[in-house]
Automatic annotation (TrEMBL):
Source species of the chain: Coilia grayii (Gray's grenadier anchovy)
One Pfam family, short name: Suv3_N
Key word Transit peptide present: yes
Cofactors required: Mn(2+); Mg(2+)
Protein name: ATP-dependent RNA helicase SUPV3L1, mitochondrial
Length: 781
């Protein structure tokens, strides 16, 4: 190669790309992935926990399968055909040989690996580079000359390396900023994220004990006596309970949940006290007392980060933590990182509690004060229907009911004057709630969980979960001064006894979640990555120390993927994706998408728009399908309210929507009050609301139940899911399709069919779509 050519070639390659190959500094701990697949006790099934053991060795390499290459056009180089003019045209066959020879060079692979290109990335980068070289009309002059020289024997195949690396870094921009990405995703000292809390010396009091031992009660006594305080609870209902209790005690208290902000001051000024769901607590407002309830939730795979944030970040002179004794040592250890001492107050159960020696076996053996716990809505329907067939009334509580309906059902059950003496509930009642239950009856001991592959599977409940649920029996404040627990089925009872006899595994890790700022910084480095991909790369790069794990972000990614195609700025996109959405509800997901689309068009989501979207006003439910849809609409309105607190201008009609939601809650309450009528109406062959000659579903299913877990009845009373049922009815039964969506689909198919049949009308639709597209473009501009 001539000197001139050599100078030209090298001048095109940056110094860094030439031969100063940086190596990643060895700074941090060894990271090990522990996969507690069957760790039922700590409820972490399916969650990867990362533990960093010590400092001083290299960081864990990121998962490069997450690196999505940025597509590059095969266009002409800026310097046009200078390379061609300075040398000769390149012969493709020869080029291919040279390139493939380069690919096989072990030395090159090793050099590239030092730059972060592992075998997978090396291969991908090479394919892209080869395509670039062979398909680009005019290569950059430097590359053209180097390739020409190699082909003529005047250069070595290794001379390709800097150009190959330059290309690799263009398609994998993360390679050029690995250190920065590692630094941004360094989650090793979360205590330092809260400078306000670190600026004061906080006192921690841990109220430890079994369920129903007065932990929350004692913490709340101190909270009530303080000049200012914040209560952080795991459920909206618990926040409501404390909000009401505090105001009843004559201490003005506000309520803050994701969807609701109630200021008791008539002029809307903030009170000294606030009861909130834990995700909503402020870590910048100073309080005298803060209460963090159910601290064992800090290890929750999805929500644990909220407890970690509250514990490390709340700015209060006194932090009262309530929860299982299994968390004491861990909380003490966490507090060493902040230099704060923990004072432990231990409590005993206020009322006795016993595991019975016999299962209930038949619904004929139910007694007043019984609560049957199921882990599926279908079982709730089935059992409440069977109870009704026996001429008894029952209340039902499950997760997707609106708070007003849950409270109304709880009130009905708690009311000694009400004839309803039996409750059928999911584990939605499992935390902190005070209900008048004498006996907890587990209808099943298995619960659907998502495993580490993201698949749904059934797993036996953990000791902690079983204790929480059993702890609802014989509450100190109720009329029953003794609690009992048993199972519906004889063969489940030994399993329950075994679960309850185990000690709760000590808590060992706390959840963390990347912040919007961290993701924004990541996006700055990787502007072409999708939000879900950014999150994946973040988690892959992140470093946590042994006390923490990164929370499961699957729901976040699910939402991020759903709206990836909608043009939104990153901050708005991030906020949308943190919305608490049940992804199993299709109507809610569709609404989320529509909200995001409307938002991206900069068109405020008005009350009228929302009413049109949910077809308000809605009628009383006639059957279970209607009820399920109403629950979904309630969640859609919740989503509106949630977003209205984050984007007030774009969701301007929160007050009107809240009014409608209250009305809807009343309609749902009414429906649930007569839920057995709705179930009856959903049954096949229902004539005039009766079920002629119905066999006893209990006897139908109990004989084939596997041990340890199947529900009393696995079949929905609605009769869906039979061998002959259609795909659409199966989808409806599985909650993947609502009857309304089914109808909409049918309408759309019918329209499509008629359009396909009429070519003339096709043209008009086409032009309409075109107009819409043009309008969209105009708006975006
Ligand atoms: N000293 C007390 N005086 C009056 N009522 C009390 C007292 N201690 C507890 N209670 C009442 O007993 C019931 C159970 O108490 P609390 O909710 O504090 O229990 P807990 O230990 O927090 O239970 P869980 O683990 O289920 O949350 C509540 O209704 C509470 O108001
Ligand atoms: Mg409590």
């Amino acid at each position: 190669m001539s000197l001139n050519r050599c100078m030209l070639a090298l001048s095109r390659v940056t110094v860094q790309h030439r031969f100063t190959l940086r190596t990643v500094p060895a700074t941090t701990g060894v990271h090990k992935w522990t996969i507690p697949v069957q760790s039922q006790e700590n409820g972490l099934c399916g969650v990867f926990q990362r533990r960093s053991i010590s400092s001083g060795s290299s960081p864990r390499p990121p998962d490069t399968s997450l690196f999505v290459p940025v597509s590059r056009k095969t266009e002409m180089a800026e310097d046009g055909s200078v390379g061609l003019e300075l040398s000769q045209p390149l012969e493709k066959g020869e080029l291919l040989k040279v390139l493939n020879k380069f690919y096989k060079r072990k030395e090159m692979q090793k050099l590239a690996a030092d730059q972060g290109l592992d075998a997978r990335l090396f291969h991908q980068a090479f394919i892209s580079f080869r395509k670039h070289v062979l398909e680009t009309n005019a290569l950059s002059a430097d590359l053209h000359i180097v390739l020409h020289d190699i082909c003529c024997g005047a250069g070595h195949v290794d001379d390709i390396y800097p150009y190959f690396m330059r290309h690799a870094k263009q398609i994998f921009p993360m390679l050029d900023c690995m250190d920065d990405l590692r630094k941004i995703s360094d989650l090793r000292v979360p205590a330092n994220w809260y400078p306000e809390a670190r600026a004061i010396q906080r006192k921690l009091i841990f109220h430890a004990g079994p369920t129903n031992s007065g932990k929350t009660y004692h913490a709340i006594q101190r909270y009530l006596a303080a000049k200012s305080g914040v209560y952080c609870g795991p459920l909206k209902l618990l926040a409501h309970e404390i909000f009401e209790k505090t105001n009843d005690a004559g201490v003005p208290c506000d309520l803050v949940t994701g969807e609701e902000r109630t200021f008791v001051d008539p002029e809307g000024r903030q009170s000294g006290h606030v009861a909130c769901t834990i995700e909503m607590c402020s870590v910048t407002t100073p309080y005298e007392v803060a209460v963090i309830d159910e601290i064992q939730m800090i290890r929750d795979p999805s929500r644990g980060w909220a407890w970690t944030r509250a514990l490390l970040g709340l700015c209060a002179d006194e932090i009262h933590v309530c929860g299982e004794p299994a968390a004491i040592n861990f909380i003490k250890e966490l507090m060493y990182t902040t230099g704060e001492e923990v004072e432990v107050h231990n409590y005993e159960r206020l009322t006795p509690f016993s595991i019975l020696n016999h299962a209930v076996e038949s619904l004929d053996n139910l007694k007043p004060g019984d609560c049957i716990v199921c882990f599926s809505k279908n079982d709730i329907y089935s059992i409440s229907r069977q109870i009704e067939l026996k001429g008894k009334e029952c209340a039902v509580i499950y997760g997707s009911l609106p708070p007003g309906t849950k409270l109304a059902q709880a009130k009905k059950f708690n009311d000694p004057e009400d004839p309803c003496k039996v409750l059928v509930a999911t584990d939605a009642i499992g935390m902190g709630l005070n209900l008048s239950i004498k006996r907890i009856i587990f209808n099943s001991l298995v619960k659907p969980v998502v495993n580490e592959k993201g698949e749904k599977e059934m797993a036996t409940i953990s000791t902690s979960q079983a204790l929480q649920i059993a702890g609802r029996a014989g509450r100190f404040s109720s009329i029953f001064k003794e609690g009992e627990v048993t199972t519906m089925h004889r063969d489940d009872l030994p399993v329950l006894k075994e679960i309850l006899s185990r000690t709760v595994d000590p808590i060992e890790t706390a959840g963390l979640h990347p912040t919007a700022e961290q993701i924004e910084m990541f996006a700055y480095h990787l502007p072409d990555a999708s939000l879900a991909n950014l999150l994946d790369i973040f988690v892959s790069f992140s470093q946590v120390d042994g006390l923490y794990f990164v929370c499961n972000i699957d729901d976040f990614k699910f939402l991020a993927d759903m709206i990836q195609h909608i043009p939104l700025n990153l901050r708005a996109r991030y906020v949308f994706c943190t919305a608490p959405i049940n992804k199993k509800q299709p109507f809610l997901c569709t609404s989320f998408l529509k909200f995001a689309r409307q938002f991206s068009r900069d068109e405020p989501l008005t009350f009228d728009w929302v009413c049109r979207h949910v077809s308000w006003p809605l009628a009383m439910p006639k059957n279970i399908k209607d009820l399920v849809h109403l629950e979904a609409v309630h969640d859609v309105l919740d989503l509106y309210l949630w977003l209205s607190y984050r984007f007030m201008d774009m969701f301007p009609d929160a007050n009107l929507v809240r009014e409608v939601q209250k009305e809807l809650d009343t309609i749902i309450q009414e429906g649930v009050r007569s839920i057995t009528r709705l179930i009856r109406a959903s049954e096949p062959h229902a004539v005039g609301g009766t079920l002629p000659g119905s066999p006893n579903p209990q006897s139908r299913t109990t004989s084939s139940r596997p041990r340890g877990g199947k529900a009393l009845s696995q079949k929905s009373p609605s009769g869906f899911g039979g061998a002959n049922s259609s795909l659409s009815s199966k989808l409806v039964q599985d909650g993947l399709l609502t009857p309304q969506l089914l109808e909409q689909l049918q309408r759309e198919w019918a329209t499509k069919l008629s359009k396909d049949a009429a070519p003339a009308s096709k043209t008009s639709t086409g032009s309409k779509t075109q107009n819409n597209k043009t309008n969209m473009k105009k708006k975006k501009k």
